[in-house]
Amino acid sequence: MPQPMPKTGGFFAALLFMLVPALAQAQSAVVPPSIKERSPVEYPEAALGSRVAGDEVLAVTVRADGTVGAVEVLSSLGVEFDNAAREAVQRWLFEPALRDGKAASARIRVDLHFDPPPPPPETEILPPEKPPAGPAAPAPTPKVSHPTAPESAAPTPPPSEVADFTVHGRLRPPSRGASDFNVHVGDLALVPRKNAAELLSLAPGILLTNEGGDGHPEQIFLRGFDARLGQDIEFSVDGVPINQVGNPEGNGYADLNFVIPELVDELRVVEGPFDPRQGNFAVAGSADYRLGLERRGFTAKFQSGTFGTRRALLMYGPQKEAVGTFGGVDLQESAGFGQNRASKRARAMGQYEGALGRTGSFRLTGTAYAVDYQTAGVLREDDYRAGRKGFFDTYDPWQGGESQRLSVAAEVKKVHDHGTFENLLYVIRNGVRSRHNFTGYLLDTQQEFQSPHQQRGDRIDRTTDSTTLGSRGFGRFSAEALGHPQGLELGYAARGDFVDAQQFRVQSSNDVPYSRDLDLYSRVANLSLYADVDLRPLPWLTWRGGVRGEAFFYDLEDRCAATSIRYPSSGFVGDASCHSQQPLGEYRDPTQRINASSMGYFPRSTLLFGPFSGLQFSVAWGRGARAIDPMFVNSGSGTPFAELSGWEGGATYARTLPVAALVARSVFFRTEVSQDFIFSQTDGRNTLAGRTSRTGWVGALRATGSWFDANANLTLVRALFEDTGLPIPYVPEAVFRGDAAIHHDLPWSFQGSPIQGALALGNTYVAPRALPYGQRGEALVTLDGSILFTWKGIETGFLASNLFNTKYRLGEYNYASNFLSQPAPTLVPERHFSAGAPRTILWTIALTLGGDR
Amino acid sequence: MNQREGRGQRLGRVQTGLAVLLISLSALACGATDTGTPAVTFQALAAGPEAAAGSLSFENQLGYSVELQRAELLVGGMYVNRQVPLPGVGAQPCVLPGTYVAEVTAGAVIDVLDGRPQPFPTPGIGIQDRGFTGELWLKGDDVDIDAPADGSQVLDARGIARRGNDVWPFETRITVSQNRRIPDPDLRRPGANPICRARIVSPISVDLRPSEGGQLLLRIHPEQWFSTVDFGALTPADRISDSPPLYRIPDSLEGQPALNLWNGLKRGSAYAMQFTDP
Fold this sequence. Notes:
The complex is a heterodimer. Chain A is mainly beta. In chain A, the strands form 10 sheets. Chain A has a 22-stranded antiparallel beta barrel. A 5-stranded mixed sheet of chain A has the order 10-16-17-14-15, with no helix packed on it. A 3-stranded antiparallel sheet of chain A has the order 3-2-7, with helices on one face. Helices cover 4% and strands 52% of the residues of chain A. In chain A, strand 28 and strand 29 (541-558) form a beta hairpin. Chain B is α+β, with helices and mostly antiparallel strands. In chain B, strands 1, 4, 5, 7, 8, 9, 12, 13 and 16 form a 9-stranded mixed sheet that branches. In chain B, strands 2, 3, 6, 10, 11, 14 and 15 form a 7-stranded mixed sheet that branches. In chain B, strand 10 (153-163) and strand 11 form a beta hairpin. The longest helix of chain B is centred in the first third of the chain and has 28 residues, at 3-30. The termini of chain B are far apart. The relative contact order of chain B is 0.19. At the A-B interface, strand 36, strand 37, strand 40 and strand 41 of A face helix 1, strand 5 and strand 8 of B.
C-alpha cells in the first residue's frame, strides 16, 4: 500500500531545484552573451501563400559592444525566411559575453521557429513584443511564433573564439480555431490573483468558486460545464497531467495550487474537444500551463496584509539561461477571513532547459508542494438571515485538508530534417486528505442491523495516495504537396495510475470514524494514440483534424465490496461497514477484484478559412470522452465512456495597429453529453445524471500596447437537461471577465533612474445561477486592483481583492441539510452558500538582483 | 470607392452582424427557465376538530361515550414528503428518503379542543412541489429525535368516559422515551425499532402543494386517539384518586387502554393536513 509522503521531502526537492540553475551557471567559466533586447521576427509576407512552418537555425556573432555582427544561416526554410530572420536578429541587442569580467565577442546559435499566420492564438494573440509607441511604427505584418524561451548555455569557449548556444522555441500545436486560446499572461500578471487557477479567467467563460478553502482546488465552470474539481477539463503543466484518476472527491480532481503564479508564462486553453491531442477529461476543454520566468536574476518578494496573510517568495532565473530555466520557492500563511479559514502553504518549482546537440533540447522540471488548510464550508441562508450565523462563520471547524505533491518530468525535443520529435516522461506522487461536512446531521439514519444510535454526523473524511507514471510524445512532419506545405503529427500518451482511496464518515462528537464508504485500490492504465493532419489545399483553406484512440484498463481491488447483507447469519455484526458475509450468512472475503476495459475512437476536425484582411473563420467539430470513475466500475462489464460531441463556428480578427495589437473573437458553440455528472451534497461529490446540452456564444477581445494590456471576454450559455428541458444547476449562464493593466514612467526619478508606475484592475460579473428546486443565485460582481511602483530592481505597492468589500456568495447551492440550528431538524431543501472573501489588501515588495529586465 | 474604404465597409458589416448575433445569444441565455419548483414560505397552523369549543364529546368504537375536557398536544415539528405512502411497505427510516416539500421546525402546544387555527411560532418553508406523506414529530424543542430520553409531555388530556351507568373520569400524560421502546424482534436487528420511530406519526396521507404566503393547517381529531380504548380495562392500580374518582391511563405500553391510546395517537388518520393558497 502506498505510504503517505513525508512533508519534508518537498523542501529538499525545492532546494535541489533552486540549485540546478545555479549549478548550471556556476559551471560556466566564461559568461556567454544573453539577449537584452529583441525585435519581433516577422513571418515573411512572400511565404504567406505557402504557409511553411518550421525551424530556421542561425549562427550569430555578438560583438563586444552587444550588437550583432555576422549572421550565418545554418539551417534554412527558404530565402524569404533567411532574410526575415537576418533582418530581425541584426536589430537585437545583447549583453556581451564576459571573459574575466571583460566584454568579448562570441558566436551563438539561434533557433527560430516559424509558424504561419493566420491570427489564431499562437500568432497574434500573444505577441511578446509590444508594438512600438509613436507614429513611426512599422507597418503591421504577421509575426512568427516567437521563441518564448530564449538562450540556454552550452559549454563556453573563450570569447575570443566563437561559441554556439541555442535559442529554443517551444513547439505549439497548430490552432484549432477561434476557441483555441494561447494566453500570454504578460502585464496582466499585475492583476491580483490568489492562485494559478485564477489565470484561467483570462480565457472566456471560466468561473472559479471554492467552498473548500485556500488549499482546496477551485471548482471550475467552463462554457456551461460544472467541471467541479476538474472532471471535465484536462489540465496539464508543460504537458504533465494534473487531473487525478480515482480521487474520491471526484475523478479528474485537479489541484493547481502547486503552481507558483509568477512562474506561469502563458497558458493554452482549448474550449471544446477539437484537438486530437486532448485526452481523458477534456470534455469541456483543456488547459495547459507553460512555465517560464521572464524576470531574470534573484527576485525576493514579500507580501503582508489583512487576515494575517504573509507570503515570502524567492525566484531565480540565471541571466544567461532560458526563460524556461528557473527556480522558485514560495511560503505562505494566512489566518483567513472569518472562522476556520487558516492555511499554510509551501511550494517549489524548478526547471532547467538546455541544448542537446546542435538540433535538440531538453527540459527537466520538478515541483514540490504541501498545504495544510481549514475550511469554513457552507452556510444555510436561513441561518444567516435569522442572525444565527455570521456571513463568514462555519458550522464545523473540523473541516479542512492537507495535501502534498511531488513531480519530476523530463522532456526531450529533437529537430531532424524530416521532422520534429518530442518526448516527455513524468512521475507524480500525490497525497490528499480532505474533510467536509455538507449536510450536518442528516444522513446517518438508523439501520436495523446497527446498534441503536443517534445521528453521529455527516462528516466526510477522504484520503488519496496516488502515484502516476506516464509518457507522451509526438513526431511532427511536413512536406510540400499541392503547392503548399502539408503537415502530419503522430502522437501517443501512456499513463498508469496507482491510487489508494478511502472515504470515511466521522462522528462529530469525538472525531472517530464510524463508517467506511469506500476503500478502493485502483490500477488504471490509459493508452492513447492520435493522428493529426494539417492540410492546406488552397491558400485560404486549412483543414486540421484527425482521430484519437483511447484505451482504458481498470484493475480494481474493492476492499469494501459488501456493505449490506440480506438475511445475515446470527453472528453478524451490523455496525461494521465492510462485511464478510453473503446473503443468508455464507462467508465471503470483504475484498473483491474487479477488472474492466474499454476502447474508443474520437474524431476531431477544424476548418480554417482565411485570413482575409486579418479576419479568419473557423468551423470545428469533435467528439470527446470522459472515462468512468473507478468507483463506478462494475466487474465484468465494459467500461462506458461518457461521450460528448461538440461543434462551433467562430471568427477571429487580428490586427496590429500603431498603438496596439488587437485580437477579437466571436464563437458560437453547442455541446451534447451522453451522461453528465451533477454535484450531490449528500455524496459530497459529483454523481451520475442524464443527457445534457450546452448552446452558447463567446466573445473575447485583447489589446496589447507598449504601455497597456487589456483583456475582456463574455460568455453566454444555455445548459439544459435534455429530458426535462430544465437548466443544469450551478452553471452560470453569463460570465464576464475584464482585466486591464497600464504602466508608464512617472514624471519623477531617483538617482537618475525613472520611477515606473503600474495600475491594474480585474472585474468579474456572473449572472444569477440556476439552482436546484427552482432557485436562482445572486449575481456576483467583484473588482480587484493593484498599484505598483518600480525603481530599478525594486518593486512595491498594494494588491487589493474585492475592492468594494461586497458580501458575495461565491458558491451557491440548494439542498437539504440539518446543522441543528433550529429546534427540529431541517429537511426541506434550503439555500446554502460559501462566502466570498471580503476586501483583502496586501502590501508587496520585491527586490530583483542581477536581473536584466 | 478605394480599396481602404471598401475594406472598411466590409468590416463594418461584419461588426454589425456580430453585434446582432451577440444580442440574439444574450436573449437565448437570459430566457432560460428555472430549474424546477421555487422555494416558498407559508403560515403554519393547527387546530382541533371544527366542532370543538372547549370540550369534545364522541362515542368510540367500543361503545364508550367520551367527553374530552382537556387535550393539549405538543407538536415538535411538522413535515411533508414527496414520497407516496405505500401500504404494506415495512418500517421506513425516520427520515424518509424522498424530498421533503414542507417543514415547520418550531414546535407548539396545540389546544386540541379549540377548533380555531392556532399558529406555530415561526413560518414554515417549502418548495412548490406536491407532497403526499405528512409527518408529525412528537418531541420537545431541541431534543434530538434519536435521543434515548425526552421528558417533554407530548399529550396532556383529561375527560370522562361513560358506558351504561359506569363512569371513568380519566387523565393521561404521555411522554416518549424508553417507555415507548418496542423490544427488538431478534438479536441480529438491534436497530429495527429505533426510538425516533416512536416519536414520529407517519404516514399521514396528504396531497398538497405549498405556495408562497399560503397556510398549512393541521387538523387534529382526538376522537381517533380514543377510538379503541377500553376504559373498562383500567385497573384499580390506575385509579389515582377516589374523591373525586380519577383514573390515569398509564404512560407506558402496558395494558389495553395505554397501548390503544398510544396506537391511536400514532394513527395517521387522526390528523389531516390541508394547504390553502393565499
